Amino acid sequence: MTLRERLRDLSRTPLEQDADELQQQSASEGGDDLSALAPRFSACVCGSVRAVTLPPRRSVPALVAEVWDGKGAVNLVWVGRRSIGGIEPGTFVRARGRVTTVRGVQTIFNPAYEILPKQ
């Protein structure tokens, strides 16, 4: 490791270090780059759940989890669900499904998912 690399590592924030670790784990688990997802194509996404929300809907409940891989984010939406055991902020997940764009945000509806241990 050169002096320049060491100085760069010392000047990085904890958020930047976490982002690099997430990118490495996502790639090692077989996840696609979230910043390069293409609408209407199937994707395998890996990352950490940053937020879980229940949007206000009158007719159909939906659970939304924002997943971040250190470079980009995608929303996972489970229609008809109010909660899923283990899906909470900080959980590392791998999900598969077809990507769409909803209000400018990459989204996967009703994905198949696995909860993985965070490295």
Q: What can you see in these coordinates?
A:
The structure is a single chain. The chain has 119 residues and is α+β, with helices and mostly antiparallel strands. It has helices spanning 3-11, 14-28, and strands at 42-53, 62-68, 73-79, 92-102, 105-109, 112-116. It has a 5-stranded mixed beta barrel with strand order 1-2-3-5-4.
Mean pLDDT: 89
Radius of gyration: 16 Å
User: Distance between termini?
Assistant: 23 Å
> What is the N-to-C succession of helices and strands?
HHEEEEEE
Number of E strands:
6
Residue ranges: pLDDT <50 for 5 or more in a row?
none
Question: In total, how many domains does the architecture comprise?
Answer: 1
Find the CATH topology.
OB fold (Dihydrolipoamide Acetyltransferase, E2P)
Q: Give the helix/strand class.
A: alpha+beta
> What level of helicity do the residues show?
10-25%
Global geometry: elongated
Q: How are the elements arranged and paired?
A:
Blueprint: H1 3-11, H2 14-28, E1 42-53, E2 62-68, E3 73-79, E4 92-102, E5 105-109, E6 112-116
Parallel strand pairs: 3-5
Antiparallel strand pairs: 1-2, 1-4, 2-3, 4-5, 4-6
The gist of it:
The chain is of the alpha+beta class and 119 residues long. Helix content is 20%, strand content 39%.
Describe the structure using short key phrases:
single chain; 119 residues; alpha+beta; OB fold (Dihydrolipoamide Acetyltransferase, E2P); five-stranded mixed barrel; 2 helices; 6 strands; 39% strand
